[in-house]
Design a protein that fits this description.
Elements lengths: L3 E4 L5 E5 L2 E5 L14 H23 L8 E8 L6 E9 L6 H12 L2 H7 L14
Amino acid sequence: MEMDICLDGGKKVNARVRGFTITTDQPVMEGGGDAAPTPFEVFIASLGACAGFYAVAYCSSRRLPTAGVRLKLRAGRSADGRRLETVHIDILVPPAFSEKDRRALVRTVNGNAVKKALLDPPEVIVACKTGGA
């Protein structure tokens, strides 16, 4: 997988991948225009979206309806705000979901690929090369 990350004016930084653009910005109080989520919010959203995909896959495999199913994420930072300490994922389901399906849904969502990448992080290598513009 390869992405182009473009500095698109002000505090906007956009990622381009497979013909799509993921737009980010910073809040006004941080010098941005507040025109889009921050990169960190997109990072947390990717965890939620991946968890949601696993929830859809579970429901589909069991022929359970996905109407009324949603996930709510809460990210908790350290007291100084510099470190992500917790991410809570609550899977909200209709009352008709059995306790057995609820437990299995949690197990399935716990196995999502983004969570696994966080638990066994890749090496991130940063280099500076010529070739801009």
